[in-house]
Amino acid sequence: MTLPENFDQNEWFIIIGVVITYTLVILFPKRFPLSMVILVMLFAIICARVTDHMMASPAVNYYDIMDTGSYELFDLLVYIFYAPFSYFFVYFLEKFKIRDYWQIGYIILWSFIAIGFESVNVYFDVFNYHEWRLTYSFPMYFVIQIMTMLFYYFIKHHYYLLKNKQ
Fold first, then answer.
1. 8-state DSSP, 6
2. In this structure, are strands 127-129 and 63-65 parallel, antiparallel, or unpaired?
């Protein structure tokens, strides 16, 4: 992994963003066991990495992450930056006890939040679009939010199933 050619606003944005979001994760009241938090956050990192591999790879090249099309250290930090948002997604899902049809609205709301977050990333040159438009991201986020919710319910079910067996 290479270091960035120029250390500019996108690297500072990622560093400050990682510090702020992980500080919030630590400061929020605990709602889940640590193992579930780690799994949900790893799931977000994997979803982001796989999606970017499909959309930003040299074969497709809809956008670049950070300064170049090649993989650098701060690309990894970008994925680490995504993880707290999945945590907040399931955190508020549980805090406000979002159930039934309200979950659809919740997923739509968080898809718009993700679009807003992506637009800030574009402003700070974290993403540099070639043939991509911000509006294309909405269906991607919508599907990823559904997958995150299903994954969370899956691990929650199995966590409490195993816990009750002990």
1. S
2. antiparallel
What number is the average pLDDT over the span 9-28?
98
* Confidence (pTM): 0.94
- CA distance linking residue 81 with residue 60, whole number of Å: 24
In tens, the pLDDT along 117-132 reads: 999 999 999 999 999 9
Give the angle 27-118-51 at the CA atoms, nearest 5°.
100
As a three-state string, the secondary structure of 116-162 is HHHHHHHHCCCEEECCCCHHHHHHHHHHHHHHHHHHHHHHHHHHHHH
CA distances 166 to 33, 34, 39, 159, 163, Å, are 16, 18, 21, 11, 6
Cβ partners under 8 Å of residue 71, min gap 6: 1, 2
Question: Which amino acid, residue 133?
Answer: R
Q: How far apart are the first and last CA of the chain?
A: 44
- pLDDT tens per residue across span 137-165: 999 999 999 999 999 999 999 999 999 99
